[in-house]
């Protein structure tokens, strides 16, 4: 495999982060009809990371392909990804199941494995989690399926000329930071501190319309739509009760004892 990078960047269409989610009337899922959607914020960071690696120039980035798995409207986030700098995109169209919801992380990872192998990618950069289900599983599952090294929650991605074929990833851990050195091919999941994603400019949005977007189904990758998990019920959290004031420390202690906290 060439030392040049061929980067796969999965992106997900989610309810916009500025929208307050609400439970549907049947209490089976979050209401998505008529709600603004956009690209998962962690995936915006992943696209930005791939484009910045290209702009850095070393190592050479030969290809950046964005991929989304989901309904027809996922083409919107793929166009955004290409406007930000991805060379092309792939859309695996899957409609959510009324009974079980969207595709589960394991099935997503199985599709990504097939794509990474077919496209001869040597790096996959993806958000550490999506803000809808917050699973934080797909990157780790993909690394396991491919047998590649992984670095999760990256806050810095660095290549050194004297370490050809290797990548250094800095990640925040409890009490400090940790730097990992891994050999390509590599899975990297991104955290919020990695970068500030660029806005897609109007000229780049127009250029993105001419970039290739290929259409696929799960059958193209030999992956079934079977869901192994079922959501029984979704409920709003109970409303928070207002706090109370106490006059002094003795009053606070008495109140805590009354509540059974001490």
From TrEMBL:
Gene3D superfamilies the UniProt entry points to: HUPs (3.40.50.620)
CDD domains listed in its UniProt record: ETF_beta
PROSITE patterns in the cross-refs: ETF_BETA
Main location: mitochondrion
Gene Ontology cellular component list: mitochondrial matrix
Keywords: Electron transport, Mitochondrion, Transport
PANTHER family: ELECTRON TRANSFER FLAVOPROTEIN BETA-SUBUNIT, ELECTRON TRANSFER FLAVOPROTEIN SUBUNIT BETA
Protein name as catalogued: Probable electron transfer flavoprotein subunit beta
Organism per entry: Heterodermia speciosa
